[in-house]
Amino acid sequence: MFQLKPLFFVIMIMGTLISISSTSWFSIWMGLEINMIAFISILFKNSKSSAEIIMKLFLIQAIASLSILFFSIFSSLFNLTISNIMMNKYYMIMFPLLLKMASAPLHFWMPALADGLSWFYLFILISWQKMAPLFLMFNFMFMDLFFIVIMLNLIIGSVMGINQTSMKKIMIFSSINHMGWMLSSILISEIMFIYYFIIYMISIIPIILMFYKSNITSLNNLLFNKSKSIMFMLMFSFNILSMAGLPPFIGFIMKIIIFNQLKMTMLISIIMILTSLISLFFYTRLIYTSSSIMISMSKIKYTSKEMYNGIVFSILPSILIPMIII
Protein backbone atom coordinates (compact mmCIF):
# COMPACT_ATOMS: atom_id res chain seq x y z
CA MET A 1 0.00 0.00 0.00
CA PHE A 2 1.28 3.46 -0.91
CA GLN A 3 2.46 5.40 2.15
CA LEU A 4 1.24 9.01 2.21
CA LYS A 5 3.45 10.21 5.07
CA PRO A 6 6.68 10.60 2.96
CA LEU A 7 4.65 12.52 0.38
CA PHE A 8 3.38 14.90 3.06
CA PHE A 9 6.97 15.47 4.23
CA VAL A 10 7.99 16.43 0.68
CA ILE A 11 5.02 18.79 0.41
CA MET A 12 5.90 20.34 3.78
CA ILE A 13 9.46 21.03 2.61
CA MET A 14 8.19 22.45 -0.69
CA GLY A 15 5.86 24.82 1.16
CA THR A 16 8.76 26.21 3.18
CA LEU A 17 10.91 26.67 0.08
CA ILE A 18 8.07 28.46 -1.73
CA SER A 19 7.67 30.93 1.14
CA ILE A 20 11.40 31.61 1.37
CA SER A 21 11.87 32.18 -2.37
CA SER A 22 8.71 34.23 -3.04
CA THR A 23 8.62 38.01 -3.51
CA SER A 24 4.87 38.60 -3.16
CA TRP A 25 2.92 38.22 0.05
CA PHE A 26 0.26 36.09 -1.65
CA SER A 27 2.89 33.55 -2.77
CA ILE A 28 4.35 33.60 0.73
CA TRP A 29 0.90 32.89 2.16
CA MET A 30 0.43 29.99 -0.27
CA GLY A 31 3.75 28.45 0.77
CA LEU A 32 2.92 28.77 4.47
CA GLU A 33 -0.49 27.20 3.89
CA ILE A 34 1.00 24.27 1.97
CA ASN A 35 3.48 23.74 4.79
CA MET A 36 0.78 23.91 7.47
CA ILE A 37 -1.64 21.55 5.71
CA ALA A 38 1.13 19.00 5.10
CA PHE A 39 2.30 19.08 8.74
CA ILE A 40 -1.23 18.74 10.11
CA SER A 41 -1.83 15.86 7.67
CA ILE A 42 1.28 14.14 9.02
CA LEU A 43 -0.03 14.57 12.57
CA PHE A 44 -3.44 13.27 11.49
CA LYS A 45 -1.86 10.13 10.02
CA ASN A 46 -0.13 9.53 13.35
CA SER A 47 -2.54 7.59 15.55
CA LYS A 48 -0.82 8.79 18.74
CA SER A 49 -1.65 12.45 18.10
CA SER A 50 -4.96 13.39 19.70
CA ALA A 51 -7.66 15.25 17.79
CA GLU A 52 -7.59 18.01 20.41
CA ILE A 53 -3.90 18.73 19.80
CA ILE A 54 -4.39 18.78 16.03
CA MET A 55 -7.43 21.08 16.31
CA LYS A 56 -5.62 23.55 18.59
CA LEU A 57 -2.63 23.65 16.26
CA PHE A 58 -4.89 24.12 13.24
CA LEU A 59 -6.81 27.00 14.84
CA ILE A 60 -3.65 28.86 15.84
CA GLN A 61 -2.08 28.44 12.42
CA ALA A 62 -5.36 29.33 10.68
CA ILE A 63 -5.65 32.61 12.60
CA ALA A 64 -2.10 33.55 11.61
CA SER A 65 -2.69 32.50 8.00
CA LEU A 66 -5.90 34.52 7.71
CA SER A 67 -4.06 37.59 8.99
CA ILE A 68 -1.34 37.11 6.38
CA LEU A 69 -3.97 36.59 3.67
CA PHE A 70 -5.68 39.83 4.69
CA PHE A 71 -2.38 41.67 4.46
CA SER A 72 -1.57 40.12 1.07
CA ILE A 73 -4.90 41.41 -0.29
CA PHE A 74 -4.26 44.77 1.35
CA SER A 75 -0.78 44.99 -0.18
CA SER A 76 -2.09 44.13 -3.67
CA LEU A 77 -4.73 46.87 -3.45
CA PHE A 78 -2.17 49.50 -2.46
CA ASN A 79 0.71 48.14 -4.58
CA LEU A 80 2.72 47.31 -1.48
CA THR A 81 5.66 45.03 -2.32
CA ILE A 82 7.86 43.08 0.04
CA SER A 83 10.80 45.44 -0.62
CA ASN A 84 9.19 48.55 0.88
CA ILE A 85 7.82 46.97 4.05
CA MET A 86 10.61 48.51 6.10
CA MET A 87 9.88 51.99 4.75
CA ASN A 88 6.15 51.83 5.53
CA LYS A 89 6.53 49.95 8.85
CA TYR A 90 3.52 47.67 8.51
CA TYR A 91 3.58 45.93 11.86
CA MET A 92 0.38 43.98 11.12
CA ILE A 93 2.23 41.35 9.08
CA MET A 94 4.89 40.82 11.75
CA PHE A 95 2.52 39.56 14.45
CA PRO A 96 1.07 36.63 12.43
CA LEU A 97 4.62 35.47 11.69
CA LEU A 98 5.49 35.66 15.39
CA LEU A 99 2.37 33.65 16.17
CA LYS A 100 3.21 31.00 13.55
CA MET A 101 6.69 30.32 14.92
CA ALA A 102 5.64 30.67 18.60
CA SER A 103 7.90 33.63 19.20
CA ALA A 104 7.52 35.71 22.36
CA PRO A 105 5.17 37.34 23.24
CA LEU A 106 2.90 35.07 21.13
CA HIS A 107 4.42 31.81 22.32
CA PHE A 108 1.59 30.76 24.65
CA TRP A 109 0.18 28.02 22.42
CA MET A 110 3.28 25.88 21.96
CA PRO A 111 3.95 24.93 25.64
CA ALA A 112 0.26 23.98 25.92
CA LEU A 113 0.69 21.47 23.08
CA ALA A 114 4.10 20.16 24.14
CA ASP A 115 3.14 17.11 26.18
CA GLY A 116 0.63 15.96 23.56
CA LEU A 117 3.23 15.66 20.79
CA SER A 118 5.82 12.96 20.29
CA TRP A 119 9.50 13.91 20.33
CA PHE A 120 9.74 13.61 16.55
CA TYR A 121 6.88 16.01 15.81
CA LEU A 122 8.01 18.37 18.55
CA PHE A 123 11.41 18.48 16.85
CA ILE A 124 9.78 19.46 13.55
CA LEU A 125 7.75 22.13 15.32
CA ILE A 126 10.74 23.79 17.02
CA SER A 127 13.07 23.53 14.02
CA TRP A 128 11.80 23.20 10.44
CA GLN A 129 8.45 24.90 11.05
CA LYS A 130 10.25 28.02 12.24
CA MET A 131 12.45 28.33 9.16
CA ALA A 132 10.10 30.16 6.78
CA PRO A 133 8.83 32.72 9.34
CA LEU A 134 12.40 33.40 10.48
CA PHE A 135 13.55 34.06 6.91
CA LEU A 136 10.60 36.42 6.43
CA MET A 137 11.69 38.35 9.53
CA PHE A 138 14.52 39.81 7.43
CA ASN A 139 11.90 42.29 6.15
CA PHE A 140 11.37 43.73 9.65
CA MET A 141 14.93 43.88 10.95
CA PHE A 142 15.08 47.69 11.06
CA MET A 143 11.83 48.18 12.95
CA ASP A 144 11.92 49.23 16.60
CA LEU A 145 9.55 46.37 17.43
CA PHE A 146 12.14 43.88 16.16
CA PHE A 147 14.52 44.72 19.02
CA ILE A 148 11.70 44.38 21.55
CA VAL A 149 10.88 40.92 20.18
CA ILE A 150 14.55 39.91 20.53
CA MET A 151 14.61 40.96 24.19
CA LEU A 152 11.29 39.24 24.96
CA ASN A 153 12.50 35.95 23.44
CA LEU A 154 15.73 36.08 25.42
CA ILE A 155 14.00 36.89 28.72
CA ILE A 156 10.95 34.62 28.45
CA GLY A 157 12.91 31.69 27.02
CA SER A 158 15.41 31.72 29.88
CA VAL A 159 13.18 32.66 32.84
CA MET A 160 10.24 30.38 32.00
CA GLY A 161 12.51 27.37 31.56
CA ILE A 162 13.75 27.41 35.16
CA ASN A 163 10.74 25.90 36.94
CA GLN A 164 9.76 23.40 34.24
CA THR A 165 9.81 19.69 34.98
CA SER A 166 8.58 18.53 31.56
CA MET A 167 11.50 17.91 29.23
CA LYS A 168 9.39 18.88 26.21
CA LYS A 169 8.52 22.26 27.72
CA ILE A 170 12.17 22.80 28.63
CA MET A 171 13.12 22.20 24.99
CA ILE A 172 10.39 24.60 23.84
CA PHE A 173 11.53 27.43 26.12
CA SER A 174 15.10 26.67 25.10
CA SER A 175 14.06 27.13 21.45
CA ILE A 176 12.39 30.45 22.36
CA ASN A 177 15.63 31.62 23.97
CA HIS A 178 17.62 30.52 20.93
CA MET A 179 15.12 32.32 18.73
CA GLY A 180 16.25 35.55 20.35
CA TRP A 181 19.80 34.79 19.22
CA MET A 182 18.60 33.77 15.75
CA LEU A 183 16.75 37.06 15.36
CA SER A 184 19.91 38.84 16.53
CA SER A 185 21.94 36.98 13.90
CA ILE A 186 19.51 38.28 11.26
CA LEU A 187 20.77 41.79 12.06
CA ILE A 188 24.28 40.71 11.01
CA SER A 189 23.73 38.78 7.79
CA GLU A 190 21.76 35.96 6.22
CA ILE A 191 24.83 33.70 6.30
CA MET A 192 25.23 34.20 10.05
CA PHE A 193 21.59 33.30 10.59
CA ILE A 194 21.95 30.14 8.48
CA TYR A 195 25.07 29.12 10.45
CA TYR A 196 23.32 29.60 13.78
CA PHE A 197 20.21 27.74 12.61
CA ILE A 198 22.27 24.77 11.36
CA ILE A 199 24.28 24.62 14.59
CA TYR A 200 21.07 24.82 16.62
CA MET A 201 19.68 21.88 14.62
CA ILE A 202 22.89 19.87 15.07
CA SER A 203 22.74 20.46 18.83
CA ILE A 204 19.12 19.47 19.41
CA ILE A 205 18.98 16.42 17.13
CA PRO A 206 21.12 14.12 19.35
CA ILE A 207 19.41 15.40 22.51
CA ILE A 208 15.93 14.68 21.20
CA LEU A 209 17.09 11.30 19.85
CA MET A 210 18.35 10.35 23.32
CA PHE A 211 15.09 11.46 24.93
CA TYR A 212 13.12 9.50 22.35
CA LYS A 213 15.17 6.29 22.61
CA SER A 214 15.15 6.38 26.43
CA ASN A 215 11.49 7.46 26.65
CA ILE A 216 12.37 10.51 28.76
CA THR A 217 9.61 13.10 29.13
CA SER A 218 10.27 14.60 32.57
CA LEU A 219 13.06 15.25 35.04
CA ASN A 220 11.99 12.19 37.03
CA ASN A 221 12.40 10.02 33.93
CA LEU A 222 15.86 11.50 33.45
CA LEU A 223 16.75 10.81 37.09
CA PHE A 224 15.55 7.20 37.22
CA ASN A 225 16.30 6.22 33.65
CA LYS A 226 17.63 2.66 33.70
CA SER A 227 19.14 2.84 30.24
CA LYS A 228 21.70 5.48 31.18
CA SER A 229 25.34 4.68 30.59
CA ILE A 230 28.66 6.46 30.41
CA MET A 231 28.13 7.07 26.69
CA PHE A 232 24.64 8.46 27.31
CA MET A 233 25.90 10.89 29.94
CA LEU A 234 28.82 12.05 27.80
CA MET A 235 26.69 12.63 24.72
CA PHE A 236 23.97 14.32 26.74
CA SER A 237 26.38 16.57 28.66
CA PHE A 238 28.39 17.68 25.62
CA ASN A 239 25.32 18.59 23.59
CA ILE A 240 23.57 20.32 26.49
CA LEU A 241 26.67 22.40 27.20
CA SER A 242 26.88 23.31 23.52
CA MET A 243 23.25 24.47 23.59
CA ALA A 244 23.95 26.42 26.77
CA GLY A 245 26.76 28.31 25.06
CA LEU A 246 29.52 27.24 27.43
CA PRO A 247 33.10 27.56 26.16
CA PRO A 248 34.79 25.94 24.29
CA PHE A 249 31.71 24.49 22.60
CA ILE A 250 30.44 25.83 19.30
CA GLY A 251 27.32 27.32 20.91
CA PHE A 252 29.55 29.73 22.82
CA ILE A 253 31.55 30.61 19.71
CA MET A 254 28.42 31.53 17.76
CA LYS A 255 27.02 33.61 20.62
CA ILE A 256 30.26 35.53 21.13
CA ILE A 257 30.49 36.24 17.38
CA ILE A 258 26.94 37.63 17.37
CA PHE A 259 27.60 39.62 20.54
CA ASN A 260 30.79 41.18 19.13
CA GLN A 261 29.47 42.01 15.67
CA LEU A 262 26.23 43.65 16.73
CA LYS A 263 26.38 47.34 17.50
CA MET A 264 23.62 47.23 20.09
CA THR A 265 22.65 49.33 23.06
CA MET A 266 23.96 48.55 26.52
CA LEU A 267 20.51 47.33 27.63
CA ILE A 268 20.32 44.57 25.01
CA SER A 269 23.92 43.54 25.68
CA ILE A 270 23.20 43.18 29.40
CA ILE A 271 20.03 41.18 28.67
CA MET A 272 22.00 38.85 26.38
CA ILE A 273 24.55 38.15 29.11
CA LEU A 274 22.05 37.74 31.95
CA THR A 275 19.68 35.49 30.01
CA SER A 276 22.59 33.30 28.93
CA LEU A 277 23.54 32.83 32.59
CA ILE A 278 19.94 32.07 33.55
CA SER A 279 19.54 29.51 30.78
CA LEU A 280 22.88 27.99 31.76
CA PHE A 281 21.35 27.28 35.18
CA PHE A 282 18.57 25.01 33.94
CA TYR A 283 20.88 23.40 31.37
CA THR A 284 23.35 22.43 34.10
CA ARG A 285 20.43 21.20 36.21
CA LEU A 286 19.67 18.70 33.46
CA ILE A 287 23.28 17.48 33.50
CA TYR A 288 23.25 17.21 37.29
CA THR A 289 20.00 15.24 37.20
CA SER A 290 21.28 12.86 34.53
CA SER A 291 24.47 12.11 36.48
CA SER A 292 23.01 12.14 40.02
CA ILE A 293 22.92 8.33 40.26
CA MET A 294 26.51 7.98 39.08
CA ILE A 295 27.48 6.58 42.49
CA SER A 296 25.05 3.69 42.16
CA MET A 297 26.32 3.03 38.66
CA SER A 298 29.98 3.04 39.68
CA LYS A 299 29.81 -0.68 40.40
CA ILE A 300 29.13 -1.35 36.74
CA LYS A 301 32.26 -1.87 34.67
CA TYR A 302 32.54 -0.27 31.26
CA THR A 303 34.95 -1.30 28.57
CA SER A 304 37.42 1.17 27.11
CA LYS A 305 35.69 0.77 23.74
CA GLU A 306 32.36 1.97 25.15
CA MET A 307 33.99 4.98 26.81
CA TYR A 308 35.90 5.79 23.60
CA ASN A 309 32.71 5.63 21.52
CA GLY A 310 30.95 7.82 24.03
CA ILE A 311 33.62 10.51 23.82
CA VAL A 312 33.77 10.41 20.01
CA PHE A 313 30.02 10.58 19.47
CA SER A 314 29.76 13.34 22.07
CA ILE A 315 32.41 15.60 20.60
CA LEU A 316 31.50 15.23 16.91
CA PRO A 317 27.99 16.73 16.95
CA SER A 318 28.77 19.48 19.46
CA ILE A 319 32.22 20.69 18.37
CA LEU A 320 33.85 19.28 15.24
CA ILE A 321 30.98 19.12 12.72
CA PRO A 322 29.78 22.71 13.33
CA MET A 323 33.37 23.98 13.06
CA ILE A 324 33.69 22.29 9.67
CA ILE A 325 30.48 24.02 8.55
CA ILE A 326 31.81 27.41 9.66
UniProtKB/TrEMBL annotation:
Pfam families: Proton_antipo_M. One of its GO terms (cellular component) is mitochondrial inner membrane. It is a multi-pass membrane protein. InterPro entries: Complex_I_Subunit_2 (IPR050175), NADH_UbQ_OxRdtase_chain2 (IPR003917), ND/Mrp_TM (IPR001750). It is an enzyme of class 7 (translocase). It is found in: Mitochondrion inner membrane. GO terms for biological process: mitochondrial electron transport, NADH to ubiquinone. GO terms for molecular function: NADH dehydrogenase (ubiquinone) activity. Its EC number is 7.1.1.2. The chain crosses the membrane at residues 6-32, 53-74, 106-128, 134-158, 194-212, 232-258, 264-286, 307-325. The keyword Magnesium does not apply. Keywords: Electron transport, Membrane, Mitochondrion, Mitochondrion inner membrane, NAD, Respiratory chain, Translocase, Transmembrane, Transmembrane helix, Transport, Ubiquinone. Residues 22-278 form the NADH:quinone oxidoreductase/Mrp antiporter transmembrane domain. It comes from the Eukaryota. It catalyses: a ubiquinone + NADH + 5 H(+)(in) = a ubiquinol + NAD(+) + 4 H(+)(out). Belongs to the complex I subunit 2 family. PANTHER family: NADH-UBIQUINONE OXIDOREDUCTASE CHAIN 2 (PTHR46552). Core subunit of the mitochondrial membrane respiratory chain NADH dehydrogenase (Complex I) which catalyzes electron transfer from NADH through the respiratory chain, using ubiquinone as an electron acceptor. Essential for the catalytic activity and assembly of complex I. Core subunit of the mitochondrial membrane respiratory chain NADH dehydrogenase (Complex I) that is believed to belong to the minimal assembly required for catalysis. Complex I functions in the transfer of electrons from NADH to the respiratory chain. The immediate electron acceptor for the enzyme is believed to be ubiquinone. This is NADH-ubiquinone oxidoreductase chain 2.
